[in-house]
Amino acid sequence: MNSQKEVSVSFVRPIDPKDGYNPEHFEYIEKKLSKEIEDIENSSYSFVCNGLVSDSTGVSSITRTIIKKIFNADIVIVDISTLNPNVMFELGLRLSLPKMTIIIKDDETTLPFDIKDFYILSYPHSLSGIDLDKFVSDFKVRFVKTWTDFNTTDGENTFIHSFYGSNLISPEINTQNLNEAIDKLGNMIDLMQHKYIAYDPRDRWDSFDFEHDVSSPVPLD
Questions:
Q1: pLDDT (tens digit, 9 = 90+) per residue, 118-151?
Q2: List of residues 6+ apart from 166 with CB closer than 8 A
Q3: pTM of whole model > 0.85?
């Protein structure tokens, strides 16, 4: 009988092709790390990679699906290369939870001031063999250590936990509150979508389905 606990791992990364990147660049990194993660041998845990949080075949509400996957996954790996707006938004959502998050980027992406203090693993933009192998090796060590520390400290080393007990956030968060928060956030995003559609049909926010990049709305004259 298998007594291992199944740990779910999801990814957040750019989806559309980017200038200066191989069209399969980010998918390649995701698949490579997924294989390495699922090959990790642990007597207590088995890690299962579930792909992108935005994978939603047959789902009517992509927004709610993304939010629920971000909130429910045990571990989320976020590739912030190119500082894609959707990725950064989803990273912000994930960091609001007392759950494990690992951030990676390619070595050509310059970090904004806001997240320079976060521990972020860099991989070679060129995806060259020797350098990429070193990154994967470092990633596996970091992954296992972070998961071990997370369980040992019961999530006390997560970003949001440092705000617990302050006048900002109460640690008394239960499942019902989280589900209500997901629904409310989904409703807020739906409202934003409708407002932007009414604002200017020429802008690129008109679908807001997280499947493509977004840009600032075009101001009306």
A1: 899 999 999 998 999 999 999 999 999 999 999 8
A2: none
A3: no
Q: What angle do CA 62, 30, 140 make, to 5 degrees?
A: 130
For 35, the 3-state DSSP assignment is: helix
Query: What are the distances in angstroms from CA 91 to CA 87, 155, 180?
Result: 6, 17, 20
Residue for token pair 């790996």: 77
Residue 105, CA distances (Å) to 61, 133, 212 in order? 29, 15, 19
Characterize 49-66 residue by residue with b for buried, 16 or more Cβ atoms within 10 angstroms of its Cβ, and e for exposed: beebbbebeeeeebbbbb
Encoded tokens for 191: 């409202």
User: For 35-51, how does the pLDDT look when each residue is reduced to its tens digit (9 = 90+)?
Assistant: 999 999 888 889 999 99
45-52 and 75-79: which strand pairing?
unpaired
